[in-house]
Automatic annotation (TrEMBL):
The keyword Plastid applies. This is Plastid lipid-associated protein/fibrillin conserved domain-containing protein. It is found in: Plastid. One of its GO terms (cellular component) is plastid. PANTHER family: PLASTID-LIPID-ASSOCIATED PROTEIN 4, CHLOROPLASTIC-RELATED. Keywords: Plastid, Transit peptide. Its main location: plastid. InterPro entries: PAP, PAP/fibrillin_dom.
């Protein structure tokens, strides 16, 4: 079988005699049927050198972003469970202040440019912590009604609603007023309307306009009531109707402010 295959595959070549080409001095033999020329196809593939890529580029920025995100979590964890500061001890105040300063430093350590980042102020912000509330009064470091002492007042959620177009700056406070038994407590929302302006680079000045009270719950059908404003000559010197504070940290969902009396406040977008 092997001999037959070999005979078959070689038959076409063995049928043509080998001859010496005329004029050839090399003595090489050629097929009598002609010359079979082999063409060699040379393919050269040249890979383009990769453009210079700096794999370290952006790593620093990403690391900074991760550090800021971690410090935000640390701050929010430090103030959680403090009932917006009403239950804060001196140790809690120190821990929250240290965490806030770490975040402020990680974000650049410089003043916030409110003219550039004005749009980041827009929205409804929920207060998660105020060091001023540790005084156990709704006025913070300024005189205000006490909570849980002489008056049966329970502080609920506190918001700031900021409109950068109309320059409206409203402090919105949910309050529960105790009532004699068997009457249920009265729930209401007080809106302290202000106008604001930017001072310098990172400070905001607010000027009081009016206070509106709206009942909730079973009394929600009652219309809003505008509280008469105290005449300027009867107002305590500590309550001038205006105030200033500095925004020390601001991004799309977290804001830190420090008041003109050193109050630390932390807000998250609502």
């Amino acid at each position: 079988m092997a001999a037959a295959v070999a005979s078959s595959c070689c038959a076409s070549t063995s049928a043509r005699p080998l001859v010496r080409r005329a004029g050839s001095r090399s003595g090489k033999l050629w097929w009598a049927g002609g010359v079979r020329k082999a063409r060699l196809l040379s393919i050269s593939a040249t890979a383009a050198a990769p453009s210079g890529v700096d794999y370290a580029a952006g790593t620093g920025a990403a690391a900074d972003d991760d550090a800021v995100a971690a410090l935000k979590v640390k701050l929010l964890s430090a103030v959680s469970g403090l009932n917006r500061g009403l239950a804060a001890s001196q140790e809690d105040l120190d821990r929250a202040d240290a965490a806030a300063r770490e975040l402020e430093a990680a974000a650049g350590g410089g003043p916030v440019d409110l003219e550039r980042d004005m749009d980041k102020l827009q929205g409804r912000w929920r207060l998660v912590y105020s060091s001023a509330f540790s005084s156990r009064t709704l006025g913070g470091s300024r005189p205000g009604p006490p909570t849980g002492r002489l008056l049966p007042i329970t502080l609920g959620q506190v918001f700031q609603r900021i409109d950068v177009v109309s320059k409206d700056f409203d402090n919105i406070v949910d309050v529960e007023l105790g009532a004699p038994w068997p009457l249920p407590p009265v729930e209401l929302t007080a809106t302290l309307a202000h106008k604001f302006e930017i001072i310098g680079t990172s400070s905001i000045k607010i000027t009081f306009d009016k206070t509106t009270v709206k009942t909730k719950g079973n009394l929600s059908q009652l219309p809003p009531l505008e509280v008469p404003r105290i005449p300027d000559n009867l107002r305590p010197p500590s309550n001038t109707g205006s105030g200033e504070f500095e925004v020390t940290y601001l991004d799309g969902d977290t804001r830190i402010t420090r008041g003109d009396r050193g109050e630390l406040r932390v807000f998250v977008i609502s």
